[in-house]
Specification:
The structure holds 3 protein chains of 3 kinds. Chain A is an alpha/beta fold. Chain A has 7 helices and 9 strands, in the order E-H-E-H-H-E-H-E-H-E-E-E-H-E-E-H. Chain B is of the alpha/beta class. In chain B, strands 1-4-2-3 form a 4-stranded parallel beta sheet, sandwiched between helices. Classes of the chains: A alpha/beta, B alpha/beta, C alpha/beta.
Chain lengths: 222, 124, 1020
């Protein structure tokens, strides 16, 4: 799932300090699961903003709500009759939600309340780790189920490089070498022979080099 | 023991500091508390396991928020006590009351012009 | 209050002649536990205590080892539960005068000395003590402080009622003068004409738990305890450390209230001493370490602490770790030397001279010396034994057999706690539960015949649309509240608050007539919420809730404003502010009350079958006790045969035949019509919760699968002897473990008798890096086998190489006997381990003698390794049952001190070596305790689930797992519908999940967010 962290409060304060009517919108999807932008975070941020405005001697109206998913029009539409009452909105959704809301409410100022980080897993509560870079063509079948794009610092297709040391990446002793992980996994699977043949250059057309991506699934569309 | 302490505190009972919600801490300040004290069991002695450790994390976050929004994190205090530490309890109330008096009324109360009487809030 | 008895059960009682009431004599922690266990299992309990309040010595302790829990904090919930229990009648003070009758039906005569305070009228306000002019030394504070002649023993005392101490009272001494207490008592509770009362009580059994007395060290002439104020006993030191003690928890010495810089503890004062008591008191090493560590924590300056000891006896569960931490992390000094005398210096300091282990003479000065006094039987307890006609052992403790560890010599009379032998709190608690188990097993047919049941009217339906109609009762508490807070002003103010339909002032809201009045008013004014502004919910909430229930209102529709303990008592000099505060507190209470909802306490269905896992001594005893209590029981053993480790033990140290006992026990279990035994049975699945478990088992060589539904589970999976890797074990047939020696002595007694010399090595596989804890059994094992060898051949050299001889309690007598019979004991340090050599088949041992300081080599016929106990392999079982284990693989009980046989997961119980290494008698006691606790749970078929539990609003649940990961009890689970599900039967209501949930979709009933917000919002 998408992993995000709450934006530093001072950054949000700076964004909204000149407004008097602000709506905070949480998202019940990924950002709830990673505890960055769910209902609770929306309430905490709203409360913090109210405290901020009140102590500054400013009359302000700060409300909060949360939507099922901000990456869906139908859910975003639930805000339509509320939007006029606010000068600005802080969306606690991932970058997708913030943009989609901005598209839908074209004349409204929409600010992000979280920093969207990566696609990853919850290793434990409060510990998230990247696993996928959404390159558009999955090669996990060739690499023992460990993605060199996401987990090798250099995104190398034929690793490891000379910077791999005792299973760690040269960028940091805390980062495991992605290729070491691939090697260990293939060894476990008895598929080390795959190292014999170099992996062909990857087809990157599905990744970012073709500009912003869309998916058209004709099988799903009427 | 009936140890005397300043009448500046109102106690709100919760089953465990694990139930002390970050929302309620912020809400107390929004409504004009000059200070809030969270009182839980000793660390390692939580009746329910680890509620007080979670409360500590939440308290730290609230302090950080209070600092950033200009209310002041020092207005929130957290203590770990046992039911046998009545003396310490009274001492804490005295200390916090003094500290809050020193800090003066909360900027929220000043801004909203609410009644001028220092009240700290304790949650246990 | 309407009460009725179970009629059918009563008929059955008449047939057997048994009485469904039990007397517990002694209100310390053991008596409290026995009383609670008995009352919760369906027996009416008379708890007889010779002081005016229960609590015993545990109430006087500051902290408890090895968890350093605050003693009063963990005890006081039990005190309160006892005090409130419908089926426990506390008789305090009272003493037993005589007994007649037979097991199942005794008549016990007791005397209740006059207390001069009417319990029904006393409200515990303390005015009598305040006005009493007579100060006397306070025995609760060990004479370090004073109290009045009118007094309550300690602030948390149960019953929280005052008493007048006739011996010091001016009225009684000066012939009718004074009467200050009577004059000022606001309720007329003082009755100086009160007479002693004698009562005859019919009971089915008696449990003795009178506890111990600390040894009086003034008997040691060279310690000058009576003359030097800075020589204190360990119990006095507990009071010095205690926050509620004479110095408010400030670590100072008595003579000049100066902070000590150096404190010494002298061990074995009155214990292990032929002049006084030869036995070991078992607890002093641990409490001395605890006191040293806590002292260091108290001191804001570097404090030097030294413990002078002979053998460090930290033999209990995780005690060795505590000892190591004290040494290595806290820097407590341990000096192996018995101090002969204490000499005074100027300004209150004290000097000790001692010879260290090398024999070098040393002199040290301390500011304070603590005498680690042992336990002994008091004169009153000796008389009690003789009044009841139970045999005492040679040390005056009640005599018991290892195979019936809580049965006194007279049938129907049981003993537990320190009166059975010196022991710590968890073992006292275990024995107390064990005694309760023994009584339940013998009086199972008369459960619920003498108990009182509370009959409650059908509750009124409160519809959500009904507007709140709140009745507010404001208590004056005599002058306790009314003397400070302006109550009429407060009452007028309360009338102006929203939703308040009725306001009344009472002199005492808690009085019986007010309860009756309140019931009427609730009806007349159609009230649907009640607020009482009075003392404290801790003592009174349950009373008012009962009144609501009697009036047909759900008990959760009640809120208390604490205007006494949190207001009038603590702001006496600021009356106006106290009145303002009272107004705030009542307004907050009213605001919350408006939002309270009725909560249903759903009945908990309880399957009446028990499952015991493990067929060793512990499991067999647990099954037998449960079967005798009348519960269908299934006993699982993974091996083809029952018996476990005990199969390899032939004799106890007392010389009893273990195999004969075991055969008899197995026969009894197998023949029992309530018990089914499944051997070669492996647990492969386990689901459910308290009262409703299902266990999947693969049984027998055919491995057929069976599903067992049951209401409780007892885990008794045992432990095994360590297989040494050291000392040539496995390389020479005469290097054997203790169990192997036992077998050898059993099989080849004659060849053993021909041995010239045997060396035993202690702590093999214990107290080392790999397994840091002490195995508890091996010291007594070595002594036992040494005595057996000496019995076979008195000329045989038996040498025991040890680190500390841990023959605790009465085992010390055998240690002494072994020394007298010429067994040699030589100490080694872990960094100078003995060496076992094999020279072409000839065994020899090399070790450094601690007195000579020289290596000694001796040829031997056999080397016996006292191999420690290791936990059974229970990794899979632990994960199936979701029960925790410690680093050594032993299961972790719910609370090391007060819940030694419970798991934190309700309905699962623990006993035997699966808990920690222990002797057969200790395993039997713990097994009976587990069976008792389990039986009490099964017997209480009317249990309900607390209404205060967490509830998930599933629609917006993100299934994020935060609740699953944060719940301290592991209760929330993600359901098949992919939302969080919280089983209300298991939820403890702490609210951690509710506060952590990132979607804010969990609410704790009775503490819902808006119910808390209401208080905050209305305050400002």
């Amino acid at each position: 799932m998408i992993k995000a962290v709450p934006k530093p409060l001072e950054e949000v304060l700076d964004l909204v300090k000149d407004f008097t009517k602000v709506l905070i919108v949480g998202c019940d999807g990924c950002v709830t699961v990673c505890e960055a932008g769910g209902s609770k975070e929306a309430k905490v941020l709203a409360s913090a903003l109210r405290l901020y405005f009140t102590q500054a001697g400013k009359q302000a109206q700060i409300d909060e709500t949360s939507l099922t998913r901000q990456c869906e029009k139908e859910y975003l539409a639930q805000l339509s009759d509320k939007m006029d009452a606010y000068d600005a909105v802080v969306s606690l959704a991932c970058g997708c939600g913030v943009q989609y809301m901005a598209e839908m409410y074209n004349n409204k100022i929409i600010y992000p309340g979280v920093d969207t980080c990566f696609l990853g897993v919850n290793e434990e509560r409060g510990l998230y780790a990247e696993r996928c870079q959404a390159c558009g063509r999955c090669i996990l079948a060739e690499t023992g189920g460990v993605c060199p794009i996401a987990r090798c610092s250099k995104r190398m297709l034929n690793g490891p490089c000379g910077g791999s040391d005792q299973g760690k990446c040269e960028i940091s002793k805390d980062v495991p070498c992605g290729w070491e992980l691939i090697y260990e996994r293939l060894k476990t699977l008895g598929q080390l022979d795959r190292f014999e043949k170099p992996v062909d250059p990857k087809d990157w057309t599905t990744s970012r080099d073709g500009g912003p991506r869309t998916i058209v699934r004709e099988d799903l569309r009427i | 023991m009936r140890l005397q302490y300043p009448p500046s505190v109102r106690i709100i009972e919760v089953p465990c500091t694990g139930k002390v919600d970050i929302m309620h801490l912020l809400m107390a300040f929004e409504y004009g508390a000059d200070g809030v004290i969270v009182m839980g069991c000793l660390e390692g002695d939580c009746h329910y396991g680890a509620g007080n450790l979670y409360a500590k994390k939440r308290g730290n976050r609230v302090k950080e928020i209070l600092d950033k929004v200009g209310v002041g994190g020092e207005r929130l205090a957290m203590y770990n006590l046992t039911s046998g530490m009545g003396g310490r309890f009274a001492e804490i109330i005295r200390e916090i009351t003094e500290k809050v008096m020193e800090l003066g009324p909360s900027p929220i109360r000043v801004a909203t012009g609410k009644a001028v009487r220092p009240i700290a809030e304790v949650t246990t | 209050m309407p009460q009725e008895k179970d009629v059918t059960a009563q008929e059955s009682a008449q047939r057997s002649g048994n009485v469904g009431a039990v007397m517990v004599v002694g209100g310390g922690v053991a008596g409290i536990q026995a009383a609670l266990d008995m009352a919760n299992s369906g027996f009416y309990v008379y708890l007889v205590e010779n002081k005016p309040a229960i609590g015993g010595v545990m109430a006087q302790l500051d902290k408890t080892f090895p968890t350093n829990d605050c003693s009063m904090c963990i005890l006081s919930p039990k005190l309160v539960e006892c005090g409130r229990h419908l089926n426990i009648e506390i008789l305090a003070p009272a003493t037993v005068q005589g007994i007649n009758g037979v097991p199942g039906h005794f008549t016990v005569k007791i005397t209740q000395p006059a207390r001069y305070i009417d319990l029904a009228k006393c409200i515990g306000c303390g005015v009598c003590a305040e006005k009493c002019p007579k100060k006397v030394p306070d025995e609760f504070n060990q004479g370090l402080g004073t109290r009045k002649s009118a007094y309550v023993m300690y602030p948390q005392a149960v019953p929280l009622k005052y008493a007048i101490d006739k011996a010091s009272c001016i009225y009684f001494k000066k012939g009718g003068k004074c009467k200050a207490c009577e004059k000022f008592c606001p309720t007329g509770a003082v009755d100086l004409e009160q007479k002693d009362q004698v009562r005859d009580l019919e009971v089915g059994a008696v449990i003795l738990t009178p506890g111990f007395r600390t040894f009086d060290p003034s008997q040691y002439p060279t310690y000058h305890y009576a003359h030097f104020p800075n020589v204190v006993t360990s119990l006095e030191f507990e009071r010095i450390l205690s926050a509620s003690g004479p110095f408010g928890g400030h670590l100072v010495r008595p003579s000049d209230h100066a902070e000590p810089k150096k404190i010494a503890w002298l061990q074995c004062v009155g214990s292990r001493d032929v002049k006084y008591h030869t036995y070991c008191s078992s607890v002093c090493c641990m409490y001395a370490i605890k006191e040293a560590v806590i002292s260091k924590e108290h001191a804001s300056y570097p404090l030097d602490t030294a413990i002078f000891f002979m053998d460090m006896r930290t033999f209990g569960k995780d005690f060795e770790l505590y000892y190591n931490r004290a040494k290595d992390e806290h820097g407590v000094r341990f000096v192996r030397s018995r101090i002969h005398s204490i000499d005074p210096l100027a300004d209150g300091d004290l000097q000790v001279r001692y010879a260290d282990e090398s024999g070098e003479e040393k002199i040290e000065t301390f500011n304070l010396i603590v005498l680690s006094v042992g336990m002994e039987v008091s004169q009153a307890s000796r008389e009690l034994s003789s009044t009841l006609g139970v045999d005492a052992n040679s040390h005056d403790f009640v005599a018991t057999s290892p195979f019936a560890p809580v049965s006194a010599s007279r049938p129907g009379i049981y003993v537990s706690g320190a009166m059975q032998g010196p022991k710590d709190i968890p073992e006292s608690v275990m024995q107390a539960s064990a005694a309760a188990g023994a009584v339940s097993a013998s009086l199972g047919d008369v459960r619920w015949t003498e108990t009182r049941l509370k009959k409650t009217p059908e509750p009124k339906a409160i519809r959500p649309e009904d507007a709140p109609r709140i009745g507010v009762f404001v208590c004056n508490c005599g002058i306790n509240i009314g003397g400070i807070v302006n109550v009429p002003d407060l009452a007028e103010y309360v009338k102006t608050l929203p939703n308040v339909a009725y306001v009344e002032e009472n002199l005492f809201t808690c009085s019986q007539d007010t309860q009756v009045q309140m019931t009427k008013i609730i009806e007349e004014h159609n009230l649907n919420r009640v607020v009482v502004a009075a003392c404290t919910p801790i003592t009174h909430e349950s009373l008012f809730r009962e009144t609501l229930t009697d009036a047909g209102l759900n008990k959760y529709l009640f809120e208390m404003a604490n205007i006494r303990n949190q207001d009038s008592w603590v702001h006496m000099k600021e009356q106006d502010k106290a009145t303002d505060k009272a107004k705030d507190l009542v307004r907050m209470a009213v605001a919350r009350a408006s939002l309270l909802k009725p909560l249903m306490e759903k009945p908990l269905s309880i399957n009446q079958r028990a499952l015991v896992i493990g067929g060793g001594i512990a499991g067999l005893n647990a099954a037998l006790n449960l079967g005798d209590q009348g519960f269908e029981t299934i006993l699982l053993e993974k091996e083809p045969q029952l018996g476990g480790n005990a199969r390899r033990v032939h004799k106890t140290i007392e010389g009893l035949d273990v195999q004969a006992y075991l055969d008899g026990l197995i026969e009894q279990v197998k023949a029992h019509n309530k018990i089914q035994v499944l051997t070669s049975a492996l647990v492969v699945g386990f689901i459910g919760y308290k009262g409703n478990f299902t266990t999947e088992v693969l049984v027998g060589p055919g491995m057929y699968e069976r599903k067992i539904d049951h209401g409780i589970t007892v885990v008794a999976t045992g432990a095994h002897e360590y297989h040494p890797k050291e000392f040539l074990y496995g390389e020479h047939e005469r290097v054997m473990t203790q169990l192997e020696l036992g077998d050898f002595l059993h099989r080849e007694k004659d060849s053993a008798a021909k041995w010239d010399r045997v060396v035993m090595v202690q702590c093999v596989g214990s107290r080392n890096d790999e397994s840091p804890n002490c195995s508890r059994l091996c010291c007594q094992g070595a002594v036992k086998y040494a005595l057996q060898l000496k019995g076979l051949n008195p000329d045989m050299d038996v040498v025991i190489l040890y680190r500390d001889m841990r023959t605790y309690g009465f085992l010390e007598d055998y240690y002494r006997e072994a020394r007298e019979k010429g067994v040699l004991f030589s100490r080694f340090e872990p960094d100078r381990l003995p060496q076992v050599n094999n020279d072409n088949g000839q065994l020899s041992v090399t070790f450094v003698d601690h007195v000579l300081g020289r290596p000694i080599n001796m040829a031997v016929d056999a080397v016996v390794l006292s191999a420690g106990a290791r936990a059974a392999d229970t990794e899979e079982l632990a994960s199936l049952l979701k029960i925790p284990r410690n680093a050594g693989g032993f299961f972790i009980e719910a609370h090391a001190k007060l819940r030694p046989v419970d798991f934190a997961s309700e309905g699962i119980f623990l006993c035997g070596m699966a808990h920690s290494p222990k002797l057969i008698n200790e395993s039997i006691a713990q097994a009976m305790a587990a069976a008792s606790r389990a039986g009490a749970f099964l017997a209480d078929v009317n249990q309900t689930i607390s209404g205060i539990t967490a509830h998930v609003e599933p629609d917006r649940c993100a299934a994020c797992l935060v609740c699953v990961r944060t719940c301290p009890y592991g209760i929330p689970q993600i359901s098949r519908d992919n939302v969080s599900e919280i089983n209300e039967a298991l939820c403890q209501g702490c609210g951690t999940c509710a506060s952590e949930c990132p979607a804010k979709i969990i609410q704790v009933a009775h503490f819902e967010d808006d119910q808390i917000s209401a208080k905050i919002k209305t305050l400002y």
